Structure formats: C-alpha cells, structure tokens
Fold:
Amino acid sequence: MSWSGIKNISESPNRLHAAREAYRAAGAETKEFYLVMRRYDGVPVIEAPEVETLEKPTPDTRSQGAVRREFISASTKGKYRKIIASLS
Structure:
C-alpha cells in the first residue's frame, strides 16, 4: 500500500487499525505490518482463504485516505510443492 502526501500522517495508526478490523470482518487476518521505504510505505501480511476476501474491505478502507493496494499471493513451501507436483 502507498499513502500519497503527508498531510494526515498522524492518522496512519488509526487507518491501520481500521483496515485490520475491516479485513478481520471480511474473514482475513493481518499477521504483520512492516513500515518500508521506497515504492511503498507499508507492507501488511494478510492471510485469507481466497483472494476475493481481500477485495471486500477495499472500498471502505480506501475512503479513509489516499491508499493504493497491490495484492501479491504467496505460498508456503508445502503448498508450492503441491502446486508444482500437480503440473506434471
């Protein structure tokens, strides 16, 4: 995610809490949140049963500020091996 502008930076902790609650209500769990520098301001690690779950809170959390999202799916080693095995 990326916040544009610094105008309402003091509201960031409240927006993060609201986003965590919105994802929890949608059936996902925010495991971690990392503040990063460069392209993105923060990287949340969210577990959800399917990617569609991640889209549910998006309109609501976007209305709280200038937030852009990019979802990147990740798999554990075990799941990765199952995926690769299913290809052959």
